[in-house]
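Notes from the 1:1 (GR / supervisor)

We went over the backlog. Supervisor wanted to see one worked example end to end before approving the batch request, so GR pasted a single chain during the call. The sequence is below; no edits were made to it. Supervisor asked that the structure be written out right there so they could see what the output format looks like.
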Amino acid sequence: MARRLVFRVLSRIKGGTIELVEPDGRRFTFGDPATGLRAEVRAHSWGFHTAFLRGTVGLGESYRDGLWDTDDQVALTRIGCRNMAGLDAWRRRFNPVLTPFNQLVRRVPRNSRKAARRHISSHYDLGNDLFALFLDESMMYSSAWFTDPEATLAEAQEARLDRVCQALELGPDDHLLEIGTGWGGLAVHAASRYGCRVTTTTISEEQRDGALRRVADAGVSDLVTVLLEDYRDLRGRYDKLVSIEMIEAVGWQYFDTYFRRCSELLEPDGLMFLQAITIDDRAYDIEKAAKSFANTLIFPGGCLPSTEVIQGCVASSTDMSTIWVDDISPHYAETIKRWRDRFNKNSDLAAELGYDEAFQRVWTLWLSMSEAGFRERRLRDMQMLFAKPERKPALEGVSRSFEPLHQGGR
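Structure output shown during the call:
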C-alpha cells in the first residue's frame, strides 16, 4: 500500500527527474529528464516507502537512520520544491497532524517564556564549537550579502552588517536594541563602526557567553550591554531596533505580541530593521499547522512567518509603517552553500567533537534542504524597514550609501 502511494506521488513529478533504486536493485525513473535537474534516491530498506508518506519528518528521520541516500540532496529538494503545490494538496489529505484534534493541539501556545528558553537551548546551546565548524570567523548565523560573487563569506557578512546599519542610519547619538544577539557580531560591528550604544538580548546562555567574550575582545564593553532576557520582558525606549532572523523562533501564536512589543520599545520617531526567513504566502497555513523536518529535528517550536503575515501583524498590532521590503534570497542560497561546504569539509573534526554520523546526516540534509528552498523561492529571506509615526524622511543624500534591491532580489 505504502509503495503504491509513493509511486503515485512520484509519477506526478515535474521540473526534474528522480531515479528511485529500491532495496532489491530495481530502478524506476520519474519526472521530466528535459528539465536538467536530477537526483538518484537509493532506498536501503523497504521502510523507506512508509517514511516517505510521513513527509519531511519521516524522510529526515529515515535519512538520519540510514534507510536511504541520495547523490544530490540539493537537487532532490529543489525538485520537491517545484512540486509543492501538488504535494501540499496531498499533505492536506494524508498528513495525520492535520486532523481536527491535532490542529486544536497546535493552536495551544507553545512558546511561553519557559518553553522558548528550552527550544532555543535545544538548538543554540548544542555548543559553540559546532557552529564554528561551518560559520566564518564573525560567527554570523544569518544570510550574508554578496556585493561581489568572489567575496569571502567573512567579507559578505561584513557587507551585510553595513547594509543593516546604514538602513537604520545609525550614529553616535543612537541607542540600538537588538533582539536576538547571536554571538554578538552585529552588536560589536554597530558599536565599533558606527559609535552607537547597543543593548542586545538573547535567551541562549551559550550565545550570551560567546557574545560577552566578543564584546570584551573588541574593546566595546562601554558601548554594548548583553542581556539574557526574553523580548517580552524588555523595558525602556530605544532609538532603533534590529532583529535578524529571530522571529522564526517566536511561534506563530506570538507574532502579534512580538511586533507589538517591538513597537512599544521604540521612541516615537524610531526605526525597526527586520531580517526574516519566510515561507511562501500560499503555504503558510499548512506549514504552521504541520510537523516538519525543521520544527521537529532542528528548531523545536519554530514557525516561519510569511511576508503577508508579517505585514498584517505590523498593520494590526503596531503604529509602525513599512518603508521598504527587499528579498535577498539568492544571497542566502549562496551563504548556505558556503556553510554546507565548510560543514562537510570539517566532518572528521565534528566527529572528534562528539557529533556522530547520525547527527551530521541530519545537519547536512537540513543545510541542503534550506539551500534548495531559497534557490526555488519556497523559502525567502526578507529585509524590512519599519518606521514609527514621527519618523521624518532622511535628508537628501544622507542614505545614498544604502541602496535596497528592487522587489524580488537579484
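Supervisor's comment: Residues 395-401, 405-410 have pLDDT under 50 and may be disordered.
Batch request approved.
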